[in-house]
Amino acid sequence: MHPPQRIAEDELIRQCKAGSLRYQELLYKQFYGYAMGIGLRYSLNRDDALEVVNDAFIKAFNSIGNYDITKPFKAWLRTIVVNTAIDRRRKDLKHQLNIELDNAGPIISHVNAMDSLGVQDILNMMKELPVMQITIFNLYEIDGYNHDEIADMLNIPASSSRVYLSRAKEKLRKLIKTETQNHG
Amino acid sequence: MDDPLDNDLRNRIREVFDNYDDEYADEGWQLLREKYPKKARRSPVLWLWLGPAAAILLLFLGILLLNKKPEKENKLVGNKPAINHPIVKSIEPQKNSNNIVDKADNAGNTAADSVINNLQKQKLANNQPANYSRNNITKANKPSIEMSNAIANNNGIADKKIGGNIQPPVSNTEQNFAAISPTKTTEKQTVGIAKIDNTSKIDSSANASTQSMATVKPNNGVNMLDESKQPNKTVFAENEVPKNKRDLGYRGRAISFGIYAATYVNYASKSNNQINEGIGISSDVRLSRKLNLSTGIAIGQNSLNYNGQLPPEQSKLLAPANSSANSAVSNKASALAAPAYAANAFFAATPSLKNYTASLVGLEIPINMKYKFNPEKSATFVSIGVSSGTFINERYTSTYAYTTPFASNLSQTTNQSLQQKFNSFYFAKTLNFSFGKGYRLSGNDLIIEPFLKYPIEGLGSQQIKFGSGGVNLKFNFQGKRRND
Q1: B9-23, B210-224, B326-340: which has the minimum mean pLDDT?
Q2: Which of these, A167, B146, B355, B363, is most buried using a 10 Å CB contact count?
């Protein structure tokens, strides 16, 4: 949902830099959906995602004075949201390092074709993957980080990142194919 | 992702989540507002400091500015040409290893000469014949000029100007004085000063008494000066204030001033603790290197709150007050508590004490001994002493509820107040303990000083025994350091 009256991004950011709470609210509402989309991919449930998003916005508001207005705001916000999500899940990620990857969960339903995948379908699918795998999948495939960056972020070797990514993709393929066959 | 399926999935995920939206942005914002922006939760204590601290700061800045003017005038006088300020007409030097001789024929000597000539002059005195002015004193008995050991050891110089045209050497920022005084009574004793510039030689932490004093000791019966012109005269330059007493030791001031704001809790038996605040000025008089006498004046609010009861002091007073109201105190106390004790006189309404509060604005004069642990390095100290003072305003309020015996649900409250101003002066009725930790700020000290004031006797017209404990935030002005 967007605010009824969209305000130019530059103006929003300029006012936010000036500390206007009103414009911060407008900025929040304007980019809420975008941030939630990122948060959901990493948190896999709405409540956690909302916390991630709000924490990320608070960080953004606090550091917006340092934001270079010549660069895309979305990219800047995305970085903050991703980092916030990773920070929140860091404990889970450590726990997941030693989990065996082969135990696939129940197959998702309602997947008939790729184009018909909705948010909830994708989230359900992602939930079938271990946290580490889906996190690395998101970081690498969706958000564009390379393995070295991921290794730094998650404090794991880059080679492990590659392995986790590979397993995540393999698992997703299986999930999609299976469901497509079942419902196709 | 090389697999087309992978590409499709990736693109689909991006598409779905990049365009994700839901209807809960408003709720999300409300949740965010619970944490952002952080409410400016200033510590209540800090908040209480700000007003009084600012007021005191302004007050003292004004005082400092006023005090600075005379100092400047003095300095200007000190820099005037020497012709107008002869110090010593002449002193005959003696060829003695301790003697210091200066040429008297160089009437145009300036203050800088004393700096330049420093130690060399002392040595020259041993080898070079002195030039005497025409006003030289009798040569039969020669005065000796002795330097303190500290100065000699530090190669400091007492540059003594001799002759009618001699200018007292002045160091613009730091000065030491060498007093020339006779060791025994002579017909005319003359005390002069010889100025020493020791900016680079003398350790400021050395014993001040040996560091800065040089004494000229004329022998018995020596008339050192032209008596007609310099009879029994102290030879400080006119209008120049002797500074040797106040310019000694650490931080350069024998007396320092400070301002402070206090936040504290009043405590008393059966009273709820009340947070209050006060402001004050303080002065520290240095008694020794580590010991200071600290005094000042402070104004502070004190409040006590007794729920449904009188202070113990009044309760004691009221018992005899019913039979004989002799003392003024008991009269006042009984006046406040009268409704409660007059209850029997009213059958229609029975008053009961609901609350009793005391609010006293005190003017306090503390006298404390302050022991500094390491005055050269920090302003950490402990302090103990007593406080005297008076109360500018005292207000005691009793709140009574009246209920009728036949209609207990009908009640009415009334307040009775007793107010007095400057009722009495109390002397040393409060014990003070404090510990201070100082932090250097631009040459001055910011001191955080937790304190406890313990009542020895009752205070105020109602003789309530109350104390206080809290923290002083103190700013001590050290002024410019003077080493000489």
Answers
A1: B210-224
A2: B146
Query: Which among B21, B30, B35, B38 is the top mutation candidate for probing chain A, defined by the most A β-carbons within 10 Å of its own β-carbon?
Result: B21
Nearest to A58 among B16, B18, B36 (CB): B36
Tell if the CB–CB gap between B12 and A114 is shorter than 8 Å.
Answer: yes
B68-73: list long-range contacts, CB under 8 Å, 24+ apart. Answer: B73/B239
- Judged by a CB distance cut-off of 8 A, whether residue A141 touches chain B is yes
Cβ-Cβ contacts under 8 Å, B13 against chain A: 41, 117, 122, 141-142
- pLDDT tens column, B314-332: 665 555 444 444 444 444 4
Contact between chains at A36 and B14 (C-beta distance less than 8 A): no
pLDDT at B184 over 70: no
**pLDDT for res B382:** 92
Question: Is pLDDT at B74 greater than 60 in this prediction?
Answer: no
pLDDT digits (tens, 9 = 90+) for A12-52: 898 898 888 999 999 999 999 999 999 999 987 888 899 99
pLDDT single digits (tens) B81-112: 444 444 444 444 444 444 433 443 444 444 44
To the nearest 10°, the Cα dihedral for A171, A175, A177, A183? 180
pTM of the predicted structure, to 2 decimals: 0.38
Q: How far apart are CA B104 and CA B124, in angstroms?
A: 14
Q: In the numeric block, which tokens belong to residue B68? A: 């600075």
- Cα-trace Rg, chain A: 18
Mean pLDDT over all residues of chain B? 63
Q: How far is A159 from chain B (nearest CA, A)?
A: 17
Placement of tokens 């809290």 in the chain: B470
Question: Which structure tokens are listed for A73?
Answer: 């705001």
Q: Which residues have a Cβ under 8 Å from the Cβ of B18 and sit 6 or more positions away?
A: A34, A37
Residue of A37, A58, A141 with shortest CB distance to B20? A37
**What is the overall mean pLDDT for chain A?**
83
A54: which chain B residues are within 8 Å (Cβ-Cβ)? 28, 31-32, 35-36
Q: Which residues of B touch A53 (CB under 8 A)?
A: 28
CA-atom Rg of chain B in angstroms: 36
Give the pair of three-digit tokens for residue B452: 């406890």
- Helix A21-43 × helix B25-35 angle, to 10°: 110
Q: Is the pLDDT of residue B431 over 70?
A: yes
- Chain B contact present for A50, CB below 8 A: yes
